[in-house]
Amino acid sequence: MAAVSESSVAYPIPNDESTPTVSTAPRPRHVGPNIFPNFPVFTRLIGYAAQGEAVAIDDRTYNIKASYSQLLTDVLHVRNVLYGTLSADVLNRLWANEEVYFNLLAPASYEYAVAFLAILAIGGIIVPLSPALPEQEALYYVKTSRAVVMLSSTKNARSGRNIARAVSSTFNPGYQSIDIAPLIGRPPLRAADMLVSCDHFLDYHGAGLVIFTSGTTGPPKGALRRRSFIDGQATRIADLYALNRGDRVMHILPVHHATGIGTTFLPFLLSGACVEFHSSGFDPVKVWEHWRAKRLTYFSGVPTMYMRMMAHYETVLKNLPPHVAESYIAGARHFRQLLCGTSALPRPLADKWKALMGGRRILERYGTTEFSGAFTIPPGDKECPDGSVGKVMVGTDVKLSEGDQGEILVKSPFMFTKYIFDQAATEAAFDSEGYYRSGDIARRGGDYYFIMGRASVDILKSGGYKISALDVEREILGLDYVSEVMVVGVEDEEFGQRVAAAIVLKPDTIGSLSLDRLRHELRSKLASYKNPTMLRVVPELRKTVTGKVVKKALKTELFPPNGHPDVQIWRTQTRPRL
């Protein structure tokens, strides 16, 4: 049997007072270098390893292919190295089932997958960080999580060491960064040589994962998820999409956010499928080429990705010789499903994809960092109205604050338990009945739900009317010359708030865009009170790594209180002022 670690490593004597005993005599605990803690994830993965050498992870960026046996072998080794590296105090906290946080600094990659599972296997709480974070900004997340160590990928090894040096010299002397790369690629164990403990259990409902909020409407907060999210939520998604060992997903999303972890990584891994990681940055040209190869069965993206993919198709691919253009369409139609989350897919864009896919729609869903899925469009649902994000997910309790419309209030079996080390924010997040207050507004039509936007930035109050910014954005995006748009409410003495649009024009647009022209072309599509009264044409709209437009910050930047010469304003009974 291949060795996984040195014999000098100390293994835990878990504090499992609930473990039944039949005798008062001490009994050796079932722990060791090749033994996983008792948790469904490891039992399932070992089962897949026993079924053959199918590829579990295909890391296209770093050219690593790993079977389930290889993956689990490397997980054991990293776990064992952690046992030999951590201080006695930290080990004692782990063995006492206390909350111990581990930072993970890595892109979507094989190294990430190994480290994620290794932290789980040692009983720690996984705190993934964005590999794109500036080192100074990363200190906020490390300090907020009070982590004991950082696991760093090849790409982030230098940053990891620099961050660790800054942390250890200021607020945590024992903090260090451990490089993942030298610890992987061990001789793979046979599935029969990897065991699951009979008496060392991970608490299924104990703390397992922290996902930081995107920070689009305030400072990022660390939402703590139970270990049941890692297993149960993944299984729920896998069942919804009927995932199996024949599936292969193109994973191109950040793995420090809920969608990249809970939708595109864990459900596929725990279904015995292949996760194909791409972390070199989103390039619509390259993605289309991967699609054309027809080896993928699932793709999960965000609206910005689908927008750029469609733009490349319309400007380049559909103008190729017919047989070549058809090969790209065939690649798109080869997928079992295309998925979209993080933010609403604009209706005009959704319609274009539906046409390209031969009548099949992109399956949207709605969730947040705090509770993942609440609404989803099930595969094969032909009754779902256009613009809807689907029905309530099975097992989830959802209500709207004002009956058929209002703030989305949620109780989910896999929702977060708290914002770490922030009791005030945690208490403020729930209403008096224990529902999580999402801050998002929706309306219900029959069994289906429609997202109207974020209460703080997407619901405008202008001239006595409540207006959904998403409704206005949808109609503006339907104009041929518009590439992207952001609609916000700008404070105004006359209207209360003005409907302000920041627009990115398509590259081939001739001339500039006036507010007069925009209002004229929207007149037949929008009620007069919804028509924009402010316009600014911009080269781009800044976004988060998950493709969300940072509206709260851009509102002030693009439409400052003291005005800006590039902002066009419509005045009642006057011509627009430029």
How would you sum up this structure in a few lines?
By secondary structure, this protein is of the alpha/beta class. It contains 17 helices and 28 strands.
Mind explaining what this structure looks like?
Helix 10 packs across helix 12. The N terminus and C terminus are likely disordered. The protein contains 17 helices and 28 strands. Helix content is 29%, strand content 25%. Strands 3-2-12-11-13-14-15-16-17 form a 9-stranded mixed beta sheet. A 4-stranded parallel beta sheet has the order 5-4-6-7, sandwiched between helices. It folds into 3 domains: 133 residues, Rossmann fold (3-Layer(aba) Sandwich); 221 residues, 3-Layer(aba) Sandwich (Rossmann fold), CATH 3.40.50; 111 residues, ANL, C-terminal domain (GMP Synthetase, Chain A, domain 3, 2-Layer Sandwich), CATH 3.30.300.30. It starts with 34 loop residues before the first strand and ends in a 9-residue tail after the last strand. It is globular. It is α/β, with parallel strands linked by helices and 578 residues long.
Which term fits the overall shape? globular
| Integer average pLDDT | 92
Tally of structural domains: 3
* CATH fold assignment of the largest domain: Rossmann fold
Radius of gyration: 25 Å
Tell me the structural class. alpha/beta
CATH architecture of the largest domain: 3-Layer(aba) Sandwich
CATH class type of the largest domain: Alpha Beta
How many strands, which pairing sense, and closed or not: the largest β-sheet? 9 strands, mixed
- N- and C-termini, Cα separation: 77 Å
Q: What is the helix fraction of residues, given as a range?
A: 25-40%
Number of discrete helical segments: 17
* Secondary structure tally: strands: 28
Question: What is the CATH homologous superfamily assignment of the largest domain?
Answer: ANL, N-terminal domain
Pfam family, one: AMP-binding_C
Organism: Cladophialophora carrionii CBS 160.54
InterPro entries: AMP-bd_C, AMP-bd_C_sf, AMP-binding_CS, AMP-dep_synth/lig_dom, ANL_N_sf
Family: Belongs to the ATP-dependent AMP-binding enzyme family.
